[in-house]
Amino acid sequence: MRTDTNTDTSSPFTGGGQTRQDQTANRRARRALFGCALVTILTTLAIFVVLIDNAASYFFGARITELLAGASLSQEVTFTEFFTGTRWAPDHATPAHGIVPIVYGTLVITVGAAFVSIPIGTATAIYLSEYASDGVRAKLKPTLEILAGIPTIVYGYFAVAFINPVVLDPLADAVFGVSLGHYSMLSGMLVVGIMTIPMVSSISEDSMSAVPDSLRNGAYALGATRLDVSTRIVLPASISGILASYILAVSRAIGETMAVTLAAGANAQLTANPFDEIMTMTAYMVKMAQGTSAVGTVEYQSLFAVGLVLFLMTLAMNLLNDWFKRRFQEEYR
Amino acid sequence: MSSDTGTETETSRPSRSGLSDSASSGPGPTPPDTPTGLLTGSDLEYEHLKNRLFHGVLVAASLFGVVMLALLVLDVATDFYVGLTTYEVSLVDFVTRDGSQQAELAGFRGAIVASVILMLLTTILSFVVGVGTAIYLEEYAPDNRITRLIEANLANLAGVPSIVYGLLALAAFVNGIGLGPILLAGSIGLGLLVMPIIIVSSQEALRAVPDGVRNGSYATGATEWQTIRQVVLPAAMPGILTGTILALARAIGETAPLIMVGALFTNRLPLGPFDRFSAMPTQIYIWAQQPSQHFVHLAAVGIVVLLAFMLTMNAIALVLRSRYETEY
C-alpha cells in the first residue's frame, strides 16, 4: 500500500483543477473501492458461517440460528464418536460417524506426497539457484511451472490411466505378487507429490536467489566447494522461505481433491498397505456431492462437518506459514 | 576444503570447523596441524567426488519433474490418438454432440458451451470487485489495522482449498437462496475462488506504475480518483488483464467446486446463466471414472480440448503482456 502525501484531499491544490464535484467523486470512489475490499472479508466470514452453521445441524440437529432461539439441543453425533470413531459411513444403513479413517486418508496422502515433493523440489531449487547456467534455468523453470498449471483433473486421469495400471500394477505384481485394483494409495501420493514439486522448487529458489552473493563469495574465498556453499551457506540463509514452501505444498496436498479422488479411490479404511484403496476427506465430499443427498439429511450435513475440519486444517497451515515468515525472515541489504 | 592450519583457522573461521571435520574423515585424512595449509591429493579427489555426486543428484531431481511432465503429456496424447483411431471418435462429432449414455454417441458440446458461459460470468462477477480491491489496497488504503486485516485475509483466502468454495456456493446459493445447480451458482463459486488471484496480480500491475507518473498527475491538480482513472489504470491495464486471463485459465480447469455445486448430471446445451450444466472438467471426471475404456478415451479427447482452451488463454495473456506492457 502507498503511504505518500496525497491522502489529504483538501490539499492546497484546490485553487487549480479540483472542483468540489471532483472531490466528492474521489470520496465516493474511495468508499466504493473500500466496499470491494470488504467483499474479501465477507467471503471469509461467509465460509465460516456456512460451515459452522451446517456442521451444527450435523452435530446438534439444529442450525445455529435455531440453537440461539432456544431450540432443544439434541446431540445427534457426539464429538467423541466423531473424533475417535474408526468407521466412517454416514450414508450407510447402519451409520457410523468416526472421521478418523478419512482424516487418516488425507494425512497419509499428504505425508506420502511430501516425501516426493520436498526432496525433489528442494534439490531442483538448489540446482536452479546454484548450479544451472542461465540458459538451462531459462528453460527448466518455465517447464516445471507448467506442472503447477495443469488442472488437477488431468493428474487424476494420469493416475487412473497411466500410473496405476501401467507403472504400479506390474511393479506390485512383480515385487509383492499382489494385483492392484482400480485405485491405490501410492498413486495418489505420487500424483499429489508431482503436482506440488513446482510449489516447493519455485518458492525455495526465489528465497535462495535472494541470498546475497557476498555470502557465497566469502565462503568460496575460504576454499569452500559448491556443495559446501549450497548446503552450508545458501540453505541455512534461505531456510525461512524453504520451510514456507514446504508448508504451502503440504497445505495444497491436504486440500487436493480431484487427483486423489481419481487416484486413491473412495473406500474409507485404515490401512498401511500402499496398494490399497483409501478415501480422503475431499474424496468423501466428492462422493457425497455426486449422490443425491437431499438438503437436511445427515449425509448432506456431514459434508460441512468434514469441510469444516478440512478448512481448519488448511487455515492452521496458512497461519503457521505466516508465523514462519515473520519469525525467521532474514533481511539482506 | 583446505586442511586446517592450526589455531589461525580456529579463530578466523570458527563456523566452518564442521566442514574440515568431514573433509578429514575422507579417504586420506591429513593431520590437522599440517603446516603447509595446502590440500593433499586424495583430499581434493574426495571433495571432487562428493561434488560430482551432489551435482548428479540435483540434475536427476530436476529431471524428475520434466520426465513426469513428458510422461503425462505423452499419456494424454497417446490416449487421444487411440480415442480417435481405435474408438473412432470423430473430433467434429465430439464438439457438436451433447452427452449420452452410449459412448459412441457422447459428445462435448454442452460442456464446452457451459465452460465458456461459466468463464464469462466468472469474469463479470470477479473482475470489477477484484480490481477495485486492488486499487483500494494500492492507492487509497491507509496503513492501519483494517488494511492489514484485509491483506492477511487475502493471503488466507488464496490458501483455502477450492472444494471449500464449492461448499460455500452449495450452501449459500444453490440451496440457501434456492438457485439450484445452475451456471450462475457455479460461476459465483469460481468467481470467489479466482478473486484473490486477480487481486494479487492487479496489485502487482498497479505497483509497477511508478510514483512519478502519479505525482505528475497530482501536480496538475488532479484528485486521486482522476489520477487512478485517467493515468494509473490505463498504464496498469495490460498487466491487470494478463493476470485476469491467467486466473481464468486456472478456473476453467477447476473441477471440485463445480462438483460440489452439482454440475454433474446434465450434459445438454445450456442456453443461459440459469440452466443446469456439466462443464468440461466435470464431464472429463465423469468419463474418466467409467469402467468402459471407450469412455476413458473420451475423457482423454476432452482433456485435449480443455488443454487447448487453457493454452489459448495463456497465449492471449502472453501476447497482451508483450504488446501492451509499458516500460518505465
From TrEMBL, chain A:
The keyword Transmembrane helix applies. Its main location: membrane. It comes from the Archaea. Residues 1-24 are annotated as: Disordered. Keywords: Cell membrane, Membrane, Phosphate transport, Transmembrane, Transmembrane helix, Transport. It is found in: Cell membrane; Membrane. GO terms for biological process: phosphate ion transport. InterPro entries: MetI-like (IPR000515), MetI-like_sf (IPR035906), Phosphate_PstC (IPR011864). PROSITE patterns: ABC_TM1. GO terms for cellular component: plasma membrane. Residues 103-321 form the ABC transmembrane type-1 domain. The chain crosses the membrane at residues 32-52, 102-126, 146-168, 180-200, 233-254, 300-320. It is a multi-pass membrane protein. Belongs to the binding-protein-dependent transport system permease family. CysTW subfamily. This is Phosphate transport system permease protein.
Automatic annotation (TrEMBL), chain B:
NCBIfam families: 3a0107s02c. The keyword Membrane applies. Keywords: Cell membrane, Membrane, Transmembrane, Transmembrane helix, Transport. Its main location: membrane. Residues 112-317 form the ABC transmembrane type-1 domain. It is found in: Cell membrane. Belongs to the binding-protein-dependent transport system permease family. CysTW subfamily. Residues 12-27 have a biased composition (Low complexity). GO terms for biological process: phosphate ion transmembrane transport. It is a multi-pass membrane protein. Residues 1-41 are annotated as: Disordered. CDD domains: TM_PBP2. The chain crosses the membrane at residues 53-74, 112-137, 149-173, 179-200, 231-252, 295-320. GO terms for molecular function: phosphate transmembrane transporter activity. GO terms for cellular component: plasma membrane. InterPro entries: MetI-like (IPR000515), MetI-like_sf (IPR035906), Phosphate_PstA (IPR005672). It holds the Pfam family BPD_transp_1. This is Phosphate transport system permease protein PstA.
